[in-house]
DNA sequence: ACATGTGGTTGCATTATGAAACCATCCGCC
DNA sequence: GGCGGATGGTTTCATAATGCAACCACATGT
């Protein structure tokens, strides 16, 4: 009985999210998909991970509705992995992870990459948390309650 | 040679973040810490995970500077695990994960929890991505470039 | 037709996870 | 200060996940 414990039935949305996308390779696959990767081989070359692991992850992502298979854009008989709306919705999480990493996981001057607005080419603003009425919220200004809906 | 591959030296901030906090239990620990948990036993009871796993995760979190140990607030000889600024900075990631989970991992009507503004008690606004000049950005409006700094 | 590229699956060694048992302090109480 | 339970772990051992390499089926290029 050393089965990995599942948080799929937790009532906490954070737990459920982590259950689905809280895996290093899974997130890296989504990241690459957002940057345009579509084919099995592209993911494998970019990530350098074992093919069996990639196969398992891709299958899970398709089952979870984050990626979907569609006929290859280049007209070949192969298939493309493309992000569904649910997969595209991971974007803010990716941004949050990226900004935290930029701030806390790199020494000053260390080479890295940044996210820019495609139109202006300028670095995007940091994510901010706002109340329903627009007030800026910081750490400690929020709390969790059971949903009453 | 089946050592779990490390992404610590990746130049991608997302990869580095995932390396540190991209673990289900790790994130759950941070979540509980944000909700006020401080003691080993509190985490264990709340999460229901094996004590050895918890011990390993807590040690890693302290080494990574996300939690720090300090004398217990209740005056006992035990120690409290409290979030450092680096740990508090995970808050936006937590919010992003939560909002994605709320939207995509729950059936309508299923019991869950929501994050509210402590002052008004109302649910917080969804995270939005903005350009440097304030324009609202959607998925596809951003791209990644090497940092030139 | 044949070699090569693509997209996997299978087998096996190594590593991480997890339940339960065990152990060292610490605390409250008498 | 001595005793029982709470606290905060460590150890042991079984099971599950990861990763490398080898293999395989089908598509494509020439």
From TrEMBL, chains A, B:
Classification via PROSITE patterns: HTH_HXLR (PS51118)
Pfam (any one): HxlR
InterPro entries attached to this UniProt entry: HTH_HxlR, WH-like_DNA-bd_sf, WH_DNA-bd_sf
Top-level taxon of the source organism: Bacteria
Alphabetical list of Gene3D superfamilies matching this protein: Winged helix-like DNA-binding domain superfamily/Winged helix DNA-binding domain
Name of this protein: Helix-turn-helix transcriptional regulator
Annotated source species: Tardiphaga robiniae
């Amino acid at each position: 009985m050393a089965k990995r414990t599942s948080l799929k039935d937790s009532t906490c949305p954070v737990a459920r999210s982590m259950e689905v996308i809280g895996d290093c390779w899974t997130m890296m696959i989504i990241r690459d998909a957002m940057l345009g990767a579509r084919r099995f081989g592209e993911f494998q070359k970019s990530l350098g991970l074992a093919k069996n692991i990639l196969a398992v992850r891709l299958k899970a992502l398709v089952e979870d509705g984050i990626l979907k298979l569609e006929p290859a854009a280049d007209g070949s008989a192969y298939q493309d992995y493309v992000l569904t709306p649910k997969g595209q919705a991971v974007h803010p999480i990716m941004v949050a992870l990226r900004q935290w990493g930029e701030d806390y996981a790199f020494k000053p001057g260390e080479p890295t990459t940044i996210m820019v607005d495609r139109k202006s080419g300028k670095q995007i603003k940091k994510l901010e948390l706002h109340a329903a009425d627009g007030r800026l919220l910081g750490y400690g200004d929020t709390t969790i309650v059971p949903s009453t809906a």
